[in-house]
Amino acid sequence: MEVRTKVKHRTLVVELSAHEAEYEGNTLIVIEGQNISRLRETEAMIDSYAAMVDKRTRELERENRRVEKLLLNMMPKSVYEEFMTFGCVTPRLFEPVTVIMLDFVGFTKMAAAGDPNVTVSELNSIFTAFDQIGEQHGSERIKTIGDCYMAVTGLPHSTPDHALSAARVAAKMMRFLERRNQTHPHTWRARIGIASGSVVGSVVGVQKYVYDVFGPAVNMAARLQAQSNPMEITVCDSMRDELIEDFKLSEAETVSLRGFGDTRIARLKHYQPNRKVA
């Protein structure tokens, strides 16, 4: 049995035990008392430290999940795993891949004139939908810069139908915007360029890590996006053979693109696919 009492500001804990004993022919009850205050204090301290460690462990686990989620938003999963394992990401050449470059017509004017909270909320909603569309076709969103959205198919794992997948993603993006515009007060019109070729992917920066891709396909997609009219998708004519069975393309035309010279391009004139998109 334990007895607790306050002695000044300290709790005194005494463990009491009783047993019979014989003394000069008489039976006695002997009560022994042991001060176990320090033992109980030590046990309480250990319990407190254990609870603190559990709390800190849970906090670290939550923080790790938050960091993991943040990094996975910044880079492909395989790149994230390499980064977490080795602390760096080796630059890799991906060839070939297909790059999708999209921006919105009149976004700057809309952002300046409208409620910034509404504009950002709608942009976030649209980009989230684009991410979901891309995920269905193996497209990896690399980054957004303001209203510009860039995604790549065929990265980090090589896929033979990367060009077709990219065209399907772009077509679904346009259809999403068309349907959305029918029910929302703000009209969003996009221009898309699609180009196949090589890119180099790596994490850049020291203070702020960013996974990015560079190379001819990125530059070409940006040039083609600039060639598009509102709600139009422009592709390299060299992709025609890969797309012709699923999409209607315009006649090829030759335009001069900065850094590439005269280039044959085509429009996904009717970006409703000839065959139902999976």
Description:
This protein is an alpha+beta fold and 278 residues long. The chain is built from seven helices and eleven strands. The chain has helices spanning 37-74, 77-86, 107-113, 116-136, 162-181, 216-227, 240-243, and strands at residues 2-7, 10-23, 26-35, 92-104, 139-145, 148-153, 190-204, 210-214, 232-236, 253-257, 261-267. The strands form two sheets. Strands 4, 5, 6, 7, 8, 9, 10 and 11 form an eight-stranded mixed beta sheet that branches. A three-stranded antiparallel beta sheet has the order 1-2-3. Strand 1 (2-7) and strand 2 (10-23) form a beta hairpin. The N and C termini lie far apart (75 Å). The model has no long low-confidence stretch (mean pLDDT 88).
List keywords for this structure.
about 280 residues; alpha+beta; 8-stranded mixed beta sheet; 3-stranded antiparallel beta sheet; 7 helices; 11 strands; about 40% helix; elongated
- End-to-end Cα distance, whole Å, is 75 Å
Low-confidence stretches: none
Main pleated-sheet profile? 8 strands, mixed
DSSP strand count = 11
Helix share bin: 40-55%
Class per helix and strand makeup: alpha+beta
Mean pLDDT rating? 88
Strand content: 25-35%
Order of helices and strands: EEEHHEHHEEHEEHEHEE
Kindly provide the radius of gyration, computed on alpha-carbon positions and rounded to a whole number of angstroms.
33 Å
The outline comes out as elongated
What does the secondary structure layout of this molecule look like, with pairings?
Layout: E1 2-7, E2 10-23, E3 26-35, H1 37-74, H2 77-86, E4 92-104, H3 107-113, H4 116-136, E5 139-145, E6 148-153, H5 162-181, E7 190-204, E8 210-214, H6 216-227, E9 232-236, H7 240-243, E10 253-257, E11 261-267
Helix pairs in contact: 4-5
